[in-house]
Amino acid sequence: MLRTAVGWHIELEFEEDSNRTRAAAMVRLPDGTEMRSHGYASRHPSDAEQPRVGEEIAGGRALNELAMKLLTKAHDEIDEASGRRSYPLAP
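and the corresponding structure tokens:
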């Protein structure tokens, strides 16, 4: 039987102009930690305006950075709990 023990709240916000999209991501963890990251996308002048595509690229980049921060946090906690240096966690 599966049981949900915790939940994470993740927010993504976007700022856009005609050529750039900026994404800000934030996760709140059950231990009270808040982690933030950013991602950017630029539209080439010859490309059609597609705001959704810019959001997907910028959002994906922000979430990728957030994922790396979460992996680093987990790796540091493993090292702290074990008292030794462990192998880095990979995405």
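(Above: one complete record from the training split.) The longest helix spans residues 51-82.
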